[in-house]
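Marked as duplicate of an earlier ticket. Keeping the data here for the record.
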Amino acid sequence: MIVRTVLAVSLALALCALAFPAVEDARTTRTERAVDGELGGLSRAMHAVTADDPVAVDERGARRSVTVTVPSPSATSARVTFVAIGGVPTRDRPPDAEERLPADARGDARSVDAHGSADARGDVLAYRVAGGRTHVERVPFDVRVAAEKEGDGWQVRSDDDPLVVRSPGRIRLRLRFVTYRGTPTVLVAEARR
């Protein structure tokens, strides 16, 4: 009787050990799909706001609001390390980051450089799920993070300072299409609550 119990427990543990990597892979894949969908919606909203002509930074112009939801870790979802808008965060980029980025996001004339910034042809949206790789999606326009100043002005961050979200939850963003330093640019600002 004891031998059967020990054998049954051993068999159950072996099956769990075999299934665990598949479960982790499924959690990562499910979370990657969810974040892909959220960034796809953000990308579509950015494209929609660029359908109008850009205006000066301090002028009124086309605006869009969009909500991006970063999934919470659970039994079926992996933890999201970061979601970044306008570049790949510096502290999450290993020294050989350019080699680790997908082929279409390596530093050539059409994509990001080793710092995760883009050239005049566009910028990037990026994310990483724990246990996964860094995903980078190009957008065909410059993206800058901005904040509304008291009054009616805007404070625009440098191009190498993306908006980085590291905790789960919803973030409301306001998008504007402006001419910033002579370049058509999508400004992204966190909406005030």
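See parent ticket for discussion. The chain has one domain: 2-190.
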